[in-house]
Write a structure and sequence with these properties.
By secondary structure, the protein is of the alpha/beta class. It is 34% helix and 23% strand. Strand 16, helix 12 and strand 17 form a beta-alpha-beta unit.
């Protein structure tokens, strides 16, 4: 594969030499483009020796070959590591003031960023806005690792290990190369995943047992079917796959805002997240402590918004996706079995499909194997599917494609 490896001007550039070695040993042809600042950390001689190709960061070298055009058009994959705050900002703004950013504007293949910077820079609203902008354009921006940074400080912002970057970048390439003609080719699918967490105080929260595995599997299945996938991620116990547009949402209200913002451009909404039905009426600014008098605290709960119902209502006014999928985590009780409750929920919510999980007696949550029943609002016979969460996700996506086709 023809790969462009862009190197940003951060001290983590030294780790990218190992990434380059992994790429070349795997048989890829790599052209390295370091920024001017990057050459202060690792010189061009190192990149030339490891890649076997000449290295430049100036648009004025080899002018007859118009390098920024040639490299951008020929690259089957572009990897930027370390992607500094400066590189992310320039890429998001569409600047072309050196060979690397000019090449990015000419890119016709997938682009992958592996950020590395101090925690405060990563968390700065400007950097987060730039990352969101790039992801909205279909660019993959990997989450940085957490750990020791330059100096004595530590936190999120550390460059992931070269092998992790390589694996994630190649996954992004595979997702981007899904052949045209998949079940959901050309469609935009919004998938919610994970469990929301409703804060009680600065330390505690109300949550649920969702690991996010099923939601992630659904996002991967939709991407494999040719869709552009927007993942809205609550708390996850599994990593986010490369190649997806990702929005983070911690609470039910944050997830609601993200879903409503995504609806106008979504063809399909899959609400796989375990959204808290209730939240504390009050969130204290300090930790709730045990009182010496032994009195138990009283926590008043209030309802969270019904996001699925709201999405259905918005569609009725012309502002929603063609297919809406709800999930029901149910247990049997004196009023009926899980299937009875799921049928009632499907009718009450008004969505097109409802995926039933029987979560009684330790089933489903956190496990790799599952069984679901897919119910349709069209009155079709419910379909039960069991297997790995990816196998179940593939079955759900196939049913979604059938519903979308009418």
């Amino acid at each position: 594969m023809r790969i462009v490896l862009g190197v940003g001007g951060g001290i983590a550039a030294y780790k990218v030499a190992s990434l380059l070695r992994l790429l070349t040993e795997a048989g890829h042809c790599v052209n390295v483009i370091p920024t001017e600042a990057a050459t202060r950390f690792v010189g061009t001689a190192t990149w030339e020796a490891l890649s076997g190709n000449p290295v430049s960061n100036s648009v004025w070298d080899d002018v007859d070959r118009v390098n920024h055009v040639r490299l951008g058009q020929e690259a089957e994959l572009i990897i930027i590591a370390p992607a500094t705050a400066d590189v992310l900002a320039r890429a998001a703004a569409g600047l072309a003031n050196d060979l690397l950013t000019g090449t990015l504007l000419m890119a016709t293949g997938p682009v992958f960023f592996a950020p590395a910077m101090h925690t405060e820079m990563w968390r700065h609203p400007a950097t987060q806005a730039n990352v969101a902008m790039l992801r909205s354009r279909g660019v993959t921006v990997m989450e940085p690792a957490s750990g020791r940074l330059t100096g004595a400080d530590s936190g999120p912002g550390r460059l992931p290990e070269p092998a992790e970057i390589l694996a994630a970048a190649l996954k992004a390439y595979d997702v981007a190369q899904v052949p045209i003609g998949g079940e959901l080719a050309g469609r935009t699918v919004t998938v919610t995943a994970g469990g929301t967490q409703e804060p009680l105080d600065p330390v505690r929260f109300l949550g649920n047992r969702s690991s996010g595995k099923q939601g992630i599997a659904l996002a991967q299945a939709a991407a494999a079917a040719g869709a552009h996938v927007h993942l809205i991620a609550a708390h996850l116990e599994v990593p986010v796959p490369a190649g997806l547009q990702v929005t983070r949402a911690g609470t039910a209200r944050e997830l609601r805002s993200a879903v409503l913002a995504a609806l106008p451009t979504s063809d399909i909404l899959i609400m796989a997240a375990a959204v808290a039905d209730f939240r504390p009426a009050e969130v204290t600014g300090t930790k709730i402590k045990k009182n010496d008098d032994g009195a138990d605290p009283v926590i008043t709960l209030i309802r969270n918004p019904d996001i699925l119902r709201e999405a259905v209502e918005l569609r009725r006014t012309g502002g929603g996706p063609g297919v809406i999928v709800g999930f029901a985590a149910e247990t049997g009780d004196a009023d009926g079995d899980p299937l009875t409750h799921a049928r009632a929920k499907l009718l009450r919510k008004g969505c097109d499909l409802l995926v039933l999980n029987d979560v009684g007696q330790g089933r489903v949550f956190g496990k790799d194997e599952t069984a679901v029943t897919i119910l349709g609002a069209d009155g079709s016979e419910p379909v039960t599917v069991s297997g790995s969460k990816r196998e179940v996700a593939d079955a759900v996506v196939t049913r979604v494609a059938e519903a979308l086709a009418g």
